[in-house]
Amino acid sequence: PNVYTRLGQMGLFRFEGVTQRSVIIEHAEGLLNLLPTVPLGGPATVANRDTRSMRSFTVPWIPHDDVITPQDIQGVRGFGLADAADPLAVVMERKLTRMRVKHAQTREYMEVNALRGIVKDGAGITLYNYFTEFGIAQLSVDFVLGTAGTNVQAKVRDVLRKTETELKGEIMTGAVAVVSPEFFDKLIGHAKVEDAYKFYASTSEPLRNDVRRRFPFAGLVFEEYNATVTLSTGNTETLVPAGEGIAFPVGTMDTFVTYGAPANLIETVNTVGLPIYARQLARQDGSAIEVKTEASILPINKRPRLALRIFSSN
User: Fold this and answer.
1) Whole-structure pTM value
2) Which among 36, 66, 106, 161 is most buried, taking Cβ atoms within 10 Å?
3) 7 in helix, strand or coil?
4) CA atoms within 13 A on the CB side of 184
5) CA distance 88 to 100
6) If DSSP states are collapsed to H, E and C, what string results for 268-312?
7) Taking the CB of residue 197, how many other CB atoms lie within 10 A of it?
C-alpha cells in the first residue's frame, strides 16, 4: 500500500527527543511552548508573571509487534532464488520493513492532524485538541470558488497576511497549502485562475511531470494531497477533508516539532527519546522470534493559528 509521508519529505516537523513520558505545554501570547517534566527533586522551570496557562500531556505510546515462526522460513522458496529458502535475516528485514512503514504512516497521520492543532491516535480518537485546551480560535479563509467573480488572488493574499501576522517572531521562507482533490479542481477551474494554471502546466513539461503536485499562485504553493489511511479499527479516513485544505508556512525554525519519549524499557529510562525502537527476542522454547517495535511521539504546532483552514463554501 501507499505510504503517505509528504510532510516527512518536506521536513516540516522537526524531531526532538525528551527524557520523560510526559511534557508540560505552556500557552503564552498565542504560542505553545514545551516545558519538559523533571524528576522529583530536580530543578523546576520558572514561569514569568504574565497570565499563562499550562497543561500536562502524556506522550502517546505506539507499540507494534510481529513474530517469526519456523513456518515463515521452512519450505518457503527464497525471494528471487530458484530453490533456496529465505534465510532468517531476509525474513527479519522484510518484516521490519513492513512494520517501519506502518510507523511512518502513523506518524504522518498524527502530524497532518497536528497541523490543525489536534492529536489523534491510530484509531482516529482525538487525544488532545490544543485549540480547546488553551482557548485558541482557528483561523480560516473562505475562497468562495463557486463564484466566478471571486478575486482568488485577494484570497491568497489574505492567507499570506494572516500567516505573517501569526508568525510572532518566527521566520518563514514560503507558504504551502495541501488541499483535497475537490478543492484543487475548483481552484484550477476558476475563471480567474484557469489561464494561470494553463500557462504553468504548459511550461512544466506536463507529459513528464504531475502538475497536481505543485501549483504556485500569487505566492502560495498549492499541492493536491489525496491520501486516505486505514485506521486500526478498519475504517478509513481522508487526511485532508474533501473540499478543504491546510495552508502553513515553510522554513520555520521552531514551530512544528514532534517530541519523542524514550521506549518503555529499563535500559532507556531517562534517556533522550528516539523516533522509533526495534528489537528481537528469541523465545526460550525456540518456537519463534518476537519482533517488537515502538514509538512514543507527540507532534505539536506551537503556533496553531499559523495553519489556516482554507475551504470553499460554494
Assistant:
1) 0.83
2) 106
3) helix
4) 20
5) 18
6) HCCCCCCCCEEEEEECCCCCCEEEEEEEEEEEEECCHHHCEEEEC
7) 18
**Alpha helix positions (H), 116-222:** 130-134, 152-166, 181-188, 194-202
Candidates 62, 45, 4, 49; CA nearest to 230 is: 4
The contacts of residue 107 (CB under 8 Å, 6+ apart) are 5, 8, 258, 275, 295, 297, 299
**Phi (first) and psi of residue 72, to 5 degrees:** -70, -20
Q: What is the average pLDDT score of the chain? A: 85
Dump pLDDT digits (tens) for 210-243. 656 789 999 999 999 988 888 888 899 988 999 9
Residues 245 and 145: their CA atoms lie apart, in Å, by: 13
Residue whose C-alpha cell reads 480567474 in the numeric block:
192
Q: Cell 468562495 identifies what position?
A: 144
pLDDT tens profile 55-88 = 888 899 999 999 999 888 876 665 565 555 567 8
Dihedral over Cα of 132, 135, 139, 140: its sign: positive
Cell of 282: 528469541
Q: What is the pLDDT of residues 169-194, one digit of tens each?
A: 888 999 999 999 999 999 999 999 99
